[in-house]
Amino acid sequence: MSVQPLDTPVESLPLILDSLPNPSVEERACPQRTRLQLDLILLAIEALELGGSEAILGLARELELTDIIKNRVNLWRMRSTNPLRRAHTRRPLSIVEAKALAVVACYLARRLTAVIRQLLIVVQQMSDKQIPLEQNLRLASYLERFQAHFKSRMNPRRSGAIIYHSKEKSDELAISLLEQLLFCTGTSGMQRFWISLFDGEVE
């Protein structure tokens, strides 16, 4: 991935964001795939943890990112740049805003590492034994909450969302997002996750 220098002086940005390189994307705004993936990863966190939006805002305060993630309305506006959203807005998502969301997602994933790992072990065990995933209460709760969040927030008329309105496809997406969250918790996970958001999108 090609990287270019920050346009804004490093000292003007929260230091934690400086650990993520700037991708070479047009007009310094995030492409569609990046906006979609960031919103979905946060959706998975909300399905894992009750009060997920408050946790996102709380962590933004802890990490001194409130100049970027200011409040609930501001967070909603950033996430509504996801083109699959019912309330999709055409405002761009800046690279700095995307970095802040990625950092928060990765830090929350670290806090939830034990839960994420346990759920993925259960998925593997039940798949090996060909037991329906719904028979595990904790996993079933996560999958149900994820599907409910997805259906309530995504526009069913969008071609990219239609497929996930079936339980089977919704479960597949929810499990793949668990795998991404676990990926975020590994060595250099935050940097690797960030770079993965722009795969195929950089010059």
Explain what this protein looks like in three dimensions.
The chain is an all-alpha fold and 203 residues long. The protein has one domain (28-192). It is 57% helix and 0% strand. It is built from 9 helices and no strands. It is globular and about 55 Å long. The model is unreliable at 1-11 (pLDDT under 50).
Share of residues in strands = under 5%
Query: What's the total helix number?
Result: 9
Radius of gyration using CA atoms only:
17 Å
Order of helices and strands: HHHHHHHHH
Rough shape?
globular
SSE map:
Elements: H1 32-48, H2 52-62, H3 72-79, H4 95-111, H5 113-128, H6 137-153, H7 159-162, H8 167-184, H9 189-196
The gist of it:
The protein is mainly α and 203 residues long. 57% of the residues lie in helices and 0% in strands.
Question: Which key features would you list for this structure?
Answer:
single chain; 203 residues; mainly alpha; 9 helices; disordered N terminus
